[in-house]
């Protein structure tokens, strides 16, 4: 089994103590439990947000995983999120928070003000043990409606993310379609 937390700790990108840009596209947009020096909306190219990652530790359990966001490569796609400039020490907390399968990758961030910078993003790739993979938006909504974990109900993750994306003026058909199914299930 791949220990993503150990791999993240060995990364050389944090050597030197300089602040680093981090791109958040899931709970890192709306649950900011870490210090940051600056933050601004950004997008990354050729990645798309998908609720294809299982959650054993936040929105589900190992026996009954929830479904949370990861990024999947898609040529010409663009994923909007929030970028935070953070001190390298913050990654000790973040690597623990994201320990269920997310690896830190380096990518180019395009900020909404037109500037660019290299940054890090946590991505759960399909070879991690918690990866669930594709399902229809209707099935994902049913799964989310029935899941909960130590961080709370799984629907809270989806609904908070959808709200935050609207505030960023980000169109995300995958997330908004799951939201519609979820709201229909609870009405
Ligand atoms: C992220 O938000 O950028 C990573 C996935 C998550 O923590 O929900």
UniProtKB/TrEMBL annotation:
It is an enzyme of class 4 (lyase). Keywords: Lyase, Transferase. Its EC number is 4.3.2.7. GO terms for biological process: glutathione catabolic process. GO terms for cellular component: cytoplasm. InterPro entries: ChaC, GGCT-like, GGCT-like_sf. One of its GO terms (molecular function) is transferase activity. This is glutathione-specific gamma-glutamylcyclotransferase. It comes from Cognaticolwellia beringensis. The lineage of its organism: Bacteria, Pseudomonadati, Pseudomonadota, Gammaproteobacteria, Alteromonadales.
């Amino acid at each position: 089994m791949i220990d993503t937390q150990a791999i993240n700790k060995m990364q050389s990108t944090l050597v030197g103590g300089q602040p680093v840009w981090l791109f958040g596209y899931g709970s890192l947009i709306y649950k900011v439990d870490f210090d940051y020096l600056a933050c601004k909306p950004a997008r990354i190219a050729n990645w798309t947000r998908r609720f294809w990652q299982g959650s054993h530790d936040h929105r589900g359990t190992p026996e009954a995983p929830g479904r949370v966001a990861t990024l999947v490569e898609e040529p010409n796609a663009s994923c909007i999120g929030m970028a935070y400039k953070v001190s390298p020490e913050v990654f000790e907390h973040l690597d623990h928070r994201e320990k269920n399968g997310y690896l830190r990758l380096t990518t180019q961030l395009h900020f909404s003000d037109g500037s660019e910078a290299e940054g890090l993003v946590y991505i759960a790739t399909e070879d991690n043990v918690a990866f669930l993979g594709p399902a229809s938006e209707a099935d994902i909504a049913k799964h989310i409606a029935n899941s909960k974990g130590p961080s709370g109900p799984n629907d809270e993750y989806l609904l908070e993310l959808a709200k935050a994306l609207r505030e960023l003026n980000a169109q995300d058909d995958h997330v908004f379609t799951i939201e519609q199914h979820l709201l229909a299930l609870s009405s």
